[in-house]
Amino acid sequence: MFPSRIVLIDDDQDDGYIFDLALKHLPWEIQFQHIQDSDRALAILSEKEFTPPDMLFLDWNMPKFDGKQCLLRIRAIPGYDLLPIVICST
Q: Is the pTM of this model over 0.85?
């Protein structure tokens, strides 16, 4: 019913820290992974051994691949076409 695995793709370390802190205040346990590099995130998500998360948060303003480019590439990965993805931006 509630997500148990969440991935945040965001180049800002502080945003990842705050996100993790907020998740720890929820009444259920969440496995959280913060990936700070869009290139690295795409490589991790594409690994066959990596189980897709229940929900993914994606920063819209990032270097290398911006949010739109990253979103299109994530959706092209098998198993990610229906994954809930929340776009966030500061």
A: yes
**What Å distances lie between residue 42 and 6, 18, 51, CA to CA?**
15, 23, 13
- pLDDT number for residue 34: 97
What are the residue ranges spanned by the domains of the chain?
A: 19-88
3-state secondary structure of 38: helix
3-state SS assignment for residue 59: strand
Measure the CA dihedral 34/84/23/41, to 10°.
0
Measured between alpha carbons, how far is 49 from 64 in angstroms, rounded to an integer?
Answer: 25
- Tens digit of each residue's pLDDT (9 = 90 or more) over 50-81: 999 999 999 999 888 888 999 999 999 999 99
